[in-house]
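WP5 quarterly update. Target: ATP-dependent RNA helicase DeaD. Source organism: Beggiatoa leptomitoformis. Length: 638 aa.
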Amino acid sequence: MPTEIISHFSQLALAPAVLKAVDEIGYETPSPIQAESIPPLLAGRDLLGQAQTGTGKTAAFALPLLSRLNLELNTPQVLVLTPTRELAIQVAEAMQKYARHLPDFHVLPIYGGQDMGSQLRQLKRGVHIVVGTPGRILDHLGRGTLRLNQIATLVLDEADEMLRMGFIDDVEEILNHTPKERQVALFSATMPDAIRQVARRHLKDPVEIRIQTKTVTVSSISQRYWQVSGVHKLDALTRILEVEEFDAIIIFVRTKTATVELAEKLEARGYASSPLNGDMNQSLREKTVERLKNGALDIVIATDVAARGLNVERITHVINYDIPTDTEAYVHRIGRTGRAGRKGEAILFVSPREQRMLRDIERATRQPITQMQLPSHEDITDKRISQFKQSITDAMASEDLSFFENIINGYQQDHDTGLNEIAAALAFLVQRERPLLLPKKEEKPFKEEANEEGRRTRSPRNRNEREQRPERAERSERAPAKPRAERPERAERTERGDAPSGAMMRYRIEVGRTHGAQPKHIVGAIANEAGLDSNNIGQIKLYDTYSTVDLPEGMPKDVFQHLQKVWVCGQQLRVSVDTDGAAPAPAPSRARSSEPRTTKPRADKPRTRTTSLTSSTDKPRSKTGGDTLRIKRTKKVD
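Structure tokens (predicted):
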């Protein structure tokens, strides 16, 4: 333990090359966990450290271990175990940054989903530090492609998360492959009994460090919550996005399916957004994070596990679209923003039945979460007008407008029209895609959406109020319903105008049940991307790896080509023509034509859902709310 107050990194006995990198990065005063951890780790002591996420744990072990490396020994000397791929990448990047002045230094992140051949080549070339997830490390140990006989230090980062994810047995197995005389550093936000048992078995006389924090969330994060009521969550989210000044946002949801659904809905509303979940291949996940870092992407919709270890400086807001299941998850979520002294915003959506969790979060964080009012249509209108005026100012200040001035002068002379009228007409044309004046919508009484298990909670209306609804009264005045046996087959379309008019053609799309697809996903994607009214989307049949959908005959070529690239549930639609009753075509090659193709006779029978679609103005039935279409499903008898 340090016996003096450490106010600068120069007071620590770090290697000159490492200290030079620290100075260039701009670090000055070590954080408490760094000041207490670096001296014992430099001295070769085992360490048991407890500190919350975002306190600087990575530098706390990276700086001293880099200072102790033998660069002439081109074999793994340090092994860092992390619970997730994202954290492994983050730690490896930090190591590379701190070691920028160490000659011929090599660090290798190893995790599942990454190309094994690339990992094997780099291991054969030689590395000094390996950072990896337990599963892939064990895989290499089993293959004999990773040897730990020269490991001098083993770091267990976020040990409690590895325990929660079921990796603790793998961690023990890896520890058994390391030399008996080695240094172990274990870092964890909490210290459950299982973690302490691991420490007792594998750490020798460790230095114990516990960083006490007055609050488990940083004061630079402003925390607010919105009481879910009046409007659906998707509409509320888009209002918030309209008004909030943000650079980049992470939106947290509970399920992997919800990341894709919400990303698609936000994309349809003009926001550069993308899902981030464990079902995406690692290459796509890495590209998503890179796009978020370089500004090509503004919004990421993520699950807790997928965002673990994500550290992007651009993130100004964290929105908890779905409330987390425990307080610790909430702390980890909002820790993605407000780092290194930057200001951050955290917004939490809370339904009436989730009030208890809100209070638990406030008690755990020891910080109040203030209630926010949802931006009104007037607020959004004011914001759009302000942005519109600013765009005019920017154009006048930075662009050569002489060519356009000549056009306006000519128009004014030809039509004897005032400049105000011309400017108003031009403003109208410019804002048609994004109207400055929003129509007022009547907000319906709140009704909670379906939860993950598909259960639906009741509206706050009491039973008498529900029974007095106008539609109930209207139905009571109609002719009595026919007996069930006399009703038409439910699989047939009704005569209310729901059925598509005109000739239809059947198309095949490369997304099915195994991808988590439901008819509502397909309908929403086609309606939004093709600009097709939902009434003109016909029967949808779901198979295991693909589906078929009936669309109006004579689809324009540009629409057809656009639908090829649309994503649903993590899969591109890759639309192709299917004949009625035809069988699935073989998997298409990478070099595929943009023209429709026919398919071979189908061998397997589908489990179908025949859909009757109402317009997008109906009440959403999906749990994410918004413009989801109501879908009536019936069993098809084949």
